[in-house]
Amino acid sequence: MGQKLIDNIETNDMNFKHLETTKDIIISPKNEYGDPQRPDATHTWTAKVSDGTNYVGDYAVKIDGADLIVDSEDFTKLPVGNYQLEVWEQWNDADGTSELSIYPSPRQTISFTIYANVADQAEEEIKRIGFQDVVDQAVKNVSVSYLARPLVVENEEALKAKYPKGFYSLVVTADTGHKWLWVDNTWKDCGAYQSVEYPEVDEARTGAKSLGSKKYASL
């Protein structure tokens, strides 16, 4: 990792992946001549972080010789994204006056990026899958795995009255010829059922009236 000079500090320009706990952002203060400036351990040192728009919070700073260290372990709760960091040094003079120095200064901040790990990427991919994708896959799974013949009922009203808590397999309503699946504790109309193997389904698509009420009296 290369060193990077920013105003009155030098940093290791550290970036890391989400949830990583072993990476340190190392900041080395410099005086006006560019020489190392050893941090005063009696002062209060705080890392202040922003996402570029909103202030995120304060984080611990450790002193190691001439370096200030901010540990990535403290950032595990932050989401993936780009961030800006400053280190604030606060102390009181002998006369009680409160003093503040900010690193880097005067113009810039320390930027760092938290990158997505593979688990984050997998979760994002899952979020992109819509409800209809789930339904379509369910239809495929039903037809491939355990569907011998779909259950046929007269209409949607009859379906919901007879099976208010769902049914383990595909159901076709005779009045529309649509296929129905029980998904997320509700009946989902998945459109017209296409089949050349099951004559009762093809028959159903002509409408319940043409089939006659007796055909469904036992359903």
Radius of gyration: 33 Å
First and last CA, distance: 72 Å
Bin the strand percentage: 35-45%
Number of H- or I-type helical stretches: 5
Number of strands: 15
The averaged pLDDT comes out at 82
The geometry reads as rod-shaped
Structural class, from helix and strand content?
alpha+beta
Let me know the largest β-sheet. Answer: 6 strands, mixed
Can you tell me the residue ranges where pLDDT is under 50 for at least 5 consecutive residues?
207-219
The portion of residues assigned to helices is: 10-25%
Order of helices and strands: EEEEEEEEEEEHHEHEEEHH
Summarize the structure.
The chain is an alpha+beta fold and 219 residues long. 20% of the residues lie in helices and 36% in strands.
